[in-house]
Amino acid sequence: MAFLQWSCQDVAKWIESLGYPQYTSISAYVRGLLGISEPLWSRSIADSPRDDMGMFLEMKCRTGKRADSLTYAQFLNYRKKTTRLQ
Fold first, then answer.
1. CB 21 within 8 A of CB 27
2. Is 54 exposed, middle or buried (0-12, 13-18, 19+ CB in 10 A)?
3. Higher-confidence residue: 75 or 11?
4. Using CA atoms, how far apart are residues 18 and 77, in angstroms rounded to an integer?
């Protein structure tokens, strides 16, 4: 069960070995279109949060009325308010 200890790169190599190398390219192109960087899986929680677009997309991936209706402008306003409070 060594696969339970795999890093993100190990998983990517495994997927490529199965014959799905296009997923690496597709993911890179989608990140490019969205203007976001590849998330670092080794990032410490002590580091600053991801960029605004990446965090917005994380919130949008949830389901429900609130997530569906959230706009990028609303998200930025919320971030601005919460950042000032800290």
1. no
2. middle
3. 75
4. 44
Q: 11-50, pLDDT tens digit by residue?
A: 888 887 887 778 878 888 888 888 888 777 777 777 777 7
CB burial string 5-16: b at 16+ within 10 A, e below: eeeeeeebeeee
> Distances in Å between the alpha carbon of 37 and those of 18, 20, 27, 46, 67?
26, 22, 11, 19, 22
In this structure, what DSSP letter does residue 4 have? G
Q: Map tokens 């990028």 to a residue.
A: 72
Residue 37 three-state SS? coil
Encoded amino acid at 62, one letter: R
| 83 vs 86: CA distance, rounded Å | 5
Domain map (residue ranges) of the chain: 7-40, 47-86
Q: Please, what is the average pLDDT of the chain?
A: 83
